Automatic annotation (TrEMBL):
Endoplasmic reticulum among keywords: no
UniProt keyword list: Carbohydrate metabolism, Lyase
EC number: 4.1.2.14, 4.1.3.16
UniProt cross-references to PANTHER family, sorted A to Z: 2-DEHYDRO-3-DEOXY-6-PHOSPHOGALACTONATE ALDOLASE-RELATED, 2-KETO-3-DEOXY-6-PHOSPHOGLUCONATE ALDOLASE
InterPro entries: Aldlse_KDPG_KHG, Aldolase_TIM, KDPG/KHG_AS_2
Pathway field: Carbohydrate acid metabolism
Protein name: Ketohydroxyglutarate aldolase
Family: Belongs to the KHG/KDPG aldolase family.
Quaternary state and interactors: Homotrimer.
Coiled coil location: none
Molecular-function GO terms, alphabetical: (R,S)-4-hydroxy-2-oxoglutarate aldolase activity; 2-dehydro-3-deoxy-phosphogluconate aldolase activity
NCBIfam families noted in UniProt: eda
One protein family per Pfam: Aldolase
Length: 203
């Protein structure tokens, strides 16, 4: 199974797209693409989310589009059917991890404590999402577990901002960080796509 860090290449920001319709989803992704980003995460939180994944892949075929907020078989199936390139989860369970492995897709499982990390490792994962990062110990937690899990790397998400983004990336066991601040809901509502591009360029 390909590692998420290999999928993302040199990109260290995993920008999160939340859109109420396909047109906005494509516009957000295009704005991010214009900033040089090639990998995005579309969270499956609305009835149009899966359609956004398909629409972005059709409009911007060079982009790698992941599906976030995968929590069960229904959301995993929706992500796969939409053509997601990889899967991101907010949490892990024995059952969910078994389904994720069986999917054959690259996966970034969400963990929030040491037990979650061990569980994900037992299923073969060595790259994980720390979520919600700010409420799960943040950079201090990742620094603390670095010695325990020397071959495990993380993509913290949840509470990541321009103020702490570089603090996370300074850690040896962090390969990227996810965030929503580069596509604020008000910018999307006002269709200020250029502000999204600018925010991504500043990372």
């Amino acid at each position: 199974m390909k590692k998420i860090s290999e999928v993302m290449g040199k990109q260290q920001l995993l920008p999160i797209i939340q859109a109420d319709n396909e047109a906005d989803g494509v516009a957000i992704a295009r704005a991010m693409s214009e900033a040089g980003l090639t990998t995005v995460e579309v969270v499956l939180r609305t009835e149009h989310s899966a359609k956004c994944i398909s629409a972005i892949k059709a409009a911007l075929p060079h982009m790698i589009v992941s599906a976030g907020t995968v929590i069960d078989k229904a959301s995993l199936d929706a992500a796969i059917n939409a053509g997601a390139d990889f899967i991101v989860t907010p949490a892990v369970t024995e059952r969910l991890l078994t389904m994720l492995v069986a999917s054959g897709l690259p996966v970034l499982p969400g963990v929030s404590n040491v037990s979650d990390i061990v569980l994900a490792r037992e299923h073969g994962f060595r790259e994980m999402k720390l979520f919600p990062a700010s409420l799960s110990g943040g950079a201090a937690f990742l620094k603390a577990v670095g010695g325990l899990f020397k071959d495990t790397r993380f993509c913290p998400t949840g509470g990541v901002s321009p103020d702490n983004f570089n603090d996370y990336l300074a850690l040896n066991n962090v390969f990227a960080a996810g965030g929503t601040w580069v596509a604020k809901p008000q910018w999307v509502a006002d269709k200020q796509w250029d502000l999204i591009t600018q925010a991504c360029l500043q990372v």
